[in-house]
Design goal:
By secondary structure, this protein is an alpha/beta fold. The chain has a seven-stranded mixed sheet, sandwiched between helices. Strands 11-12-15-14 form a four-stranded antiparallel sheet, with helices on one face. Strand 8, helix 7 and strand 9 form a beta-alpha-beta unit. The longest helix has 21 residues. The protein is globular, with a radius of gyration of 21 Å.
């Protein structure tokens, strides 16, 4: 027998009580009963987004939300600034170029967050930029970008939008949409929302809706104006992911009961414990200066193949972590600490990492990483 543990940064584990709710008999999506569930989920999503604006619920992964923001907010030929610090920053640019936007690439060294002063300098030179497209948490590098500082560059201007992919950020750390003036905020169901993949949630500011009225990009399925109109009638434009919406309602209830401040503190504690653990093991952290609270990355020791390490952790020890991508493939291991992950998940992840490293011949002092994590994790029990 081998018990399995899912500790990668998406999909993340689904709580049993939520899974059971989603396993109930299917209901029709055009009924008063489902409309009540849909409306409740959409209303509670405002609490998560910290906004008074509508939050759209789309049957899609988070990438659909990203594409929808490009096609609903901009027009072919518009110039956008893409902050590219990893695989998902790169994705912003690829989507934008697909729809004929002019992309100004700002490449950030992997493992680092953008410098707001550099962005300010670009905006002063490129006067006609209509949007900044950025990740709150760049999952591929486990680094965070300074969203509050970037918002200060755009919130008092009516000619530019701040569009934030918060797919591994929302519900992990503070991203108050209205207070900071974030114009478009996106998340996906399979991260901090503790659900299977299949939902994208998007919130737009009033300024963003004005851009939407002028946008000329082609769109059909991801038509935010149409979705907003249907949301007013407690439904979606097209067939919703019924079971996922039912699960979403349950998860959002739980977040409201715990309270956002407690949610953020919990993720902060897990993140600090994981960072302390990998450092105690002598591993070099991937994003030392701008770490995200969603996942921690570490470079594997010299002489160890990171791909074989992640495979061993999964196949020999039953724990699924994530490896590196592109230039970091075979060089990095990533441990998630977002969503339905708690104290002993971190202990399991670190102990499995120690054991797998030892199995592959690395010098490991058993328990050193675990002990470092425990000291911080104890904060949640005092």
């Amino acid at each position: 027998m081998k018990k399995r543990y899912l500790l990668a940064p998406g999909p993340t584990p689904v709580p049993e009580e939520v899974a059971l709710k989603m396993a109930q008999p299917m209901m029709h999506h055009r009924t008063p009963q489902f409309s009540a569930i849909f409306a409740e989920a959409a209303e509670d999503a405002k609490y998560l987004f910290q906004t008074k604006q509508d939050v759209l619920i789309l049957a899609s992964t988070g990438t659909g939300g990203m594409e929808g923001c490009v096609t609903n907010l901009f027009s072919p030929g518009d110039k956008v600034l893409v902050i590219n610090g990893g695989k998902f920053g790169e994705r912003w640019g690829k989507i934008s170029e697909t729809y004929g936007l002019q992309v100004v690439w700002h490449n950030v060294e992997w493992g680092h967050g953008a410098n707001a002063k550099d962005i300010e300098a670009i905006l002063s030179e490129e006067k006609d930029i209509k949007g900044i497209l950025v990740q709150a948490s760049e999952t591929s590098t486990t680094a965070a970008h300074p969203i509050e500082a970037l918002s200060k560059l755009t919130r008092d201007r009516d000619d530019i939008l701040l569009v934030v992919d918060a797919i591994t950020g929302l519900g992990v750390f503070n991203l108050p949409m209205d207070a900071w003036g974030i114009d478009a905020l996106i998340t996906g169901s399979q991260k901090a929302l503790e659900l299977p993949p299949g939902l994208a949630l998007v919130g737009l500011s009033e300024k963003a809706w004005k851009f939407n009225a002028q946008s000329k990009c082609p769109r059909f399925y991801f038509d935010f104006k149409k979705e907003r109109k249907n949301l007013a009638d407690k439904t979606s434009a097209y067939t919703p992911a019924v079971s996922l919406v039912i699960g979403l309602r349950e998860v959002l209830k739980g977040i409201k009961e715990e309270g956002l401040e407690s949610v953020f503190k919990r993720h902060d504690r897990l993140a600090r414990a994981t960072r302390a653990a990998v450092e105690a093991m002598g591993l070099k952290r991937v994003a030392p200066d701008s770490p995200a609270d969603s996942a921690t990355g570490a470079f594997v020791p010299d002489g160890v193949d990171g791909g074989k390490l992640v495979k061993s952790i999964r196949d020999d020890f039953g724990v699924t972590l994530a490896g590196g991508q592109d230039q970091w493939k075979g060089k990095v291991v990533r441990i998630a600490h977002l969503g339905y992950i708690d104290t002993f998940d971190i202990i399991i992840a670190i102990s499995a990492l120690e054991m797998a490293l030892a199995k592959l011949g690395a010098k490991v002092e058993f328990g050193k990483g675990v002990a470092a994590a425990q000291k911080i994790l104890m904060e949640g029990y005092q």
